[in-house]
Amino acid sequence: MEKATLHQLRLAERMSRLGTETAFEVLNKARALERLGKKIIHLEIGEPDFSTPANVVEAGIGALRQGWTHYGPSAGLPELRQAIAEEVGRSRGVQVSSDQVVVVPGGKPIIFFTLLALAEAGDEVIFPNPGFPIYESMIHYAGARPVPIRLREEKDFGFDVDELASLISDRTRLIILNSPQNPTGGVLSKQDVHDIAEVIGDRNIMVLSDEIYSRLLFEGEHYSIMSEPGFQERTILLDGFSKTYAMTGWRLGYGVMRADLAIHIARLMTNSTSCTASFTQIAGVEAVRGDQSSVERMRAEFQRRRDVFVAGLNRIKGFSCRLPKGAFYAFPNITKTGWSSKKLADALLEQAGVACLSGTSFGDFGEGYLRFSVANSLENLNQALVQIDQWTKQNL
Length: 396
Ligand SMILES: Cc1ncc(COP(=O)(O)O)c(C=O)c1O
Prior knowledge:
By secondary structure, this protein is an alpha/beta fold. The chain has two domains: 13-51 and 294-395, Aspartate Aminotransferase, domain 1 (Alpha-Beta Complex), CATH 3.90.1150; 54-289, Type I PLP-dependent aspartate aminotransferase-like (Major domain) (Aspartate Aminotransferase, domain 2). The protein contains twelve helices and twelve strands. It has helices at residues 22-35, 54-65, 78-92, 108-118, 133-141, 161-167, 190-200, 259-272, 278-289, 293-313, 341-352, 378-395; strands spanning 41-42, 101-104, 124-129, 145-150, 172-178, 206-210, 235-240, 253-256, 329-330, 354-355, 357-358, 370-373. The strands form three sheets. The chain has a seven-stranded mixed β-sheet with strand order 2-8-7-6-5-3-4, sandwiched between helices. The chain is globular and about 60 Å long. The site of pyridoxal-5'-phosphate has 13 residues, from loops. Pyridoxal-5'-phosphate (PLP) is lined by residues 46, 106-108, 132, 178, 182, 210, 212, 240, 242, 248, 253.
């Protein structure tokens, strides 16, 4: 029999700079424990537990039956780009034309493509920390230098605008904003956005404004930097269908940006996935143009769960949690437990049967915090509180 030769895997250097999203690793670990017969309450993954609204599902099925099963244009189907342009124009109070919209499979590719298109060695990119881990991963991957701006609990997880001013340099190419924010649930107010716009001034710096949770707001109104005078041409707005319409598995999101940049982002689509699935996009048209009552129903339910869960966390020894103003996460401070975030998250998974994420999954400034997703039933959330409480009583 011929002897197999072992060839060493030689990865490109850039792969060493690519990070990951630990939510999926924790999910795998939790599933492994479940296979051993342990019961786990899943509060680690950031995905709505609701079904996609029926009208959207029907539109998707109808699209499949009508033959929307072929390639489409890289930038997205004209009818969906038009529907998004109208919706974003209306909700952000700006004029948007369909050639400013690029439809992609989920919100994530807009982060990937924006960094590939705009950032390179020698550039600096300012990003929120703690924040969605893909920002830092992709800044590194593009060869640029990640410059974290610390989100501060005492500022309700907003940041200090003077600090932002001190971080901006001649090399700053891009600033990433995210509101409502993952993982903290913090929200930038209209005043915060004004102040940020003022600090950026007329510098030629682009802003990637991740607004994927814009419809999951518990107080006030969503305000985008795209609405600030002079910022439409410097903003890449990221939004999508995953969180708003419980469509994570459909893979549907978009970026809105100046038309001369949209051409290049569409070229990255041509080079990577060709196009977003056509039937998914037809379902997307129904999501945007159809009945919106399910969006409000889901938002109200997340608010109810947030109230119960955060109040419960605040009764647990060593935990203190601010009331998040948006998204569907609770981000308690756990420093008084005396445990590190990672150790505590591991112990809660293995010993208390509750899966959550260490704050450090969202960057170094996440130490001292845990992230719980409230995208689970009230019954499971209450049960998780009981199990965490029991565990802390036995171990702290
Ligand atoms: C802040 C933020 N941006 C973008 C995304 C990506 O969303 P999608 O699943 O549509 O790619 C997520 C998903 O968790 C997120 O939390």
